Protein 1
Amino acid sequence: MWVLSGIGVVVFGFALRFNPLLVVVVAGIATGLAAGFAPAAVVSMLGKAFADNRFIAVAWLVLPVIGLLERGGIRERARTLISRLRGATAGRVLTSYLLLRQTTAALGLVSLGGHVQMVRPLIAPMAEAAAERDGALDDETRNRIRANAAAVDNIGAFFGEDVFIAIGSILLIRGFLGQYGISVTPMHLALWAIPTAILAFAIHASRLWLLDRRLARRKPPA
Amino acid sequence: MIGLEVIYVLAGAMFAAFAISHAFDRANARRWRSALFWGCFAAVMLAGSWLPHLVSGILVIVMALLATMGLKPGRDATTDAAAREVSAGILRNKLFIPALAIPAVTVAGTLLLPHWRIGGVPVVDPKQVTLVSLAAGALIGLGLALHFLRAGLTTAAHEGRRLVDAMSWAAVLPQALAALGGIFAAAGVGKIVASLATDYIPMTHPLIAVVVFTTGMAMFTVIMGNAFAAFPVMAAGIGLPLIVGKFGGDPVVMSALGMLSGFCGTLLTPMAANFNIVPVAILELPDRHAVIKVQAPTAFLLLLCNTVMMALFVFHR
């Protein structure tokens, strides 16, 4: 049971707002010690697991490009384009991106998106610019629109990619069931992801419609 | 053969450039703290394959301590709002070309690179085609951006550092969480959690098994931060023996909707840092849980939908 102490460290550490990086490292060390490994072995485990997961950091290679484009005014340009578009609202901009993200992910194009590449330089400024046409935004409203832009990227990717037959989760399920002698086709698994994909779009698009209504009702800041 | 090691050197060199950019930033009183933090990270990226694991582990601990002491962003060497408006007016839609080149090259590379062979030997490691393509996309995008902006690599390093400073330690958190997942697996945390669920809830009725399975997938994903880690444990503990074995359910429906229930959990947890915490940093939001709060109603409604669908369809074959 002491092995679960790491989960306790994570729950309390995050709840008490300690630095998350520290919380995660302490949780790892606590779990390793509780499982009966020697301190040096635990630190080695941590180092090996961190080095083994370096592929996650490869995504940051886009940072210099996005930084340069921001310097060149990409956010300003995205705003200009949207403010010229008639009928654009924050909710409609985000719903269009949700649809685009979900359908491209369903075709296996999960890399057509992401918070650094798409949301920060393009989608968030576009949604903000659309909302600004009804008047200037206060900080709270601006932050709410930005958080919604990030959420759309996640929801679109998660509930789109599972419809694609060669994605990791489907391969994982096939491999797992195969160990128990159950053979399934990827097509059949992907088929059962479609109802949830449609419901995800319906639910979230409705919530974005509600967001638009709330934004339209807001009083202009004094 | 171009594989992960080449890309790690590339990424390591980039983080080393960020560290150096901090070290020369005399205006920042805490510059050595930031320089050391990104320097440690660059060292693990560059040499993680050769360094003794103990040394990598110590570097990770040093980074966690530096992050706790507090990292300060460096001086902004970037342009102001007025200059950006002018630049946006001149460059216009050309600005989108490098941004769109990244995903375009990534997708094209994923499709084409596996067929690129010289003397029968693949040029790119077939298992790492996606990451190699992403790196190629970033490099081509960088080349285009430097060309359009008439800027040099030093500017690129400063602008990249500006973004990495906005994220600060959050940029490293997903990798640390993945490492924690590895330690959890080695210590057998998953099996204990699954046995807790199966030992204390009487699963005498198929519907109880379905509800425990879908909510269990979501909750376990919240704890582990990853539906992929939750699925094998929950499916082996409840899905296969009870829903499929005892009550005769369809393994395809059980697996597909079970995994999607896990994805609902991913929307709810700070443990899935690259989806829920990193964007908060990237978009410079004051509330660390702002993205999770937006996602929560959708996640709960979808979990309900998945549970109802599984209850309706898993037992009909």
Note: Chain A touches chain B through 107 residues (CB under 8 Å).
Protein 2
Amino acid sequence: MRWLRASGLAALARAALPLLLLAALWEAAVALLHISPFYLPPLRQVLGAMLALWPAYQEAFLVTLGEAVVGFLAGALVGIASACAFHHARWLRDMLFPLFVASQTVPVIAFGAIVVLWFGNTLLAKAAIAFYLTFFPVTVNALAGIEAVDPRQVALLRSFGASRRDIWWKLLLPSALPRIFTALRLSAGLALAGAIVGEWFGASIGVGAMLLAALFNEQVVAMWAAILAAAGVGGTIFAAVALLEGRLVFWRDEL
Amino acid sequence: MSRATWRGLAGGLVLLALWEGVVRGLGIAPWILPPPSGILATTWTVRGALLDAGAMTLFEATAGYGIGAVLGIALAMLLALATPLRKLVLPMVVAVNSVPVAAYAPLALLWFGTGALSKIIMVAFIVGFTVFLNTLDGLLRVDPAAVALLRSFGAGRLGVLWRLRVPSALPAMLVGLRVSTVRSMIVAIVTEMLGSQKGLGWTIFEAVLQIDFLRVWAAILVASLISLGFFAAVGALERRVVFWR
């Protein structure tokens, strides 16, 4: 277990180093290049603003995180289930896959108003938008992962009397997992974008609502603080996905 | 036409028929979900305004797309050549990119005003990131043995870049360019919704305020058709350039 903890610390350091570098660069650039606070206020000032209103930022963080995570999980489940269905029923795939593709050219943001009309100003409305952005990349990657399985492996398992269910749980899903996680890492950001934009249609709490309020009041410091809060939400989901990936796809390093 | 195409068409028609049937059968109010026939009728009635708005949004999207694509590819090539710079810059690019681009839209509006410029810059930003990350991935993912071979024949870094890395990165780069088409339209519309006097995003925003949901759906339809056309155009270009795929 010690190597695990050590590698965990190393991973943490690797993740923190660019952030510290970016923070230092931010402070140095503002001071040395005399950047107007209208464009980029000093990082100290932004962090100060966040600390001054910490409970509000904490609440916004949790609300937006909840919306994004619910939509993200639903999108991941539907994506994997669709890939499974498409793999087993060619006709279903031919019928629905073009619709899935077309659905992604629809500017979902435009749906924001309609979704809020349907679900009211609830968590569900934002989660629905996050879901819409998430399910497609997962479907595509899961399907690609399943299709990449060597048919001879399937035949071998079947010759040993494995049922469809065994083949799915013991061969197809594990083989597709690395690709599914690639999609999940990408979708973490998309789900957050969906939650933030969903909050623009009348929500009063959340990172997206904070961004909008800062825009209306033309407060650049508050805007950067909200951007940092958004980065926090995105980073949290991303880290959770990466952690789960490390646990589930434990053989990846051996490939 | 192939069997898959027929099935795809059938799927679309079934969806439309279901939609129309459910809305009519259950008597759903148009402001909750209008039937497809109603959306088409409204689109036709306000086609002049929608075309004007669509042209504006398409202009912003394509202008930003062009700028972003050039900058993204140029930066990727620069960083493929300069390894130390890459190790420094790449994590920061990823950190900036970890925040959804929509979160930067208020800043762009505040800095560059509510005209077309703020939308073009936002689109260039998202397209630049997408193309940059895809291209760099392609440029770096070459067979080390092929690099060694070229070097042994006396090729310099530039020679390896031009003769080996760029051709083998083309597919990844084009995937980035294709994905960016739809994103460019979405980002242009999002930024328009937050602040502008023209374009599809503004049309949608205004229609929402007037509780004219048929016009919202009509604008969504036009936006989707333009995105689809843009996507198909870049896809066709891709098939001509990467002919060996």
Note: Chain B has a mean pLDDT of 85.
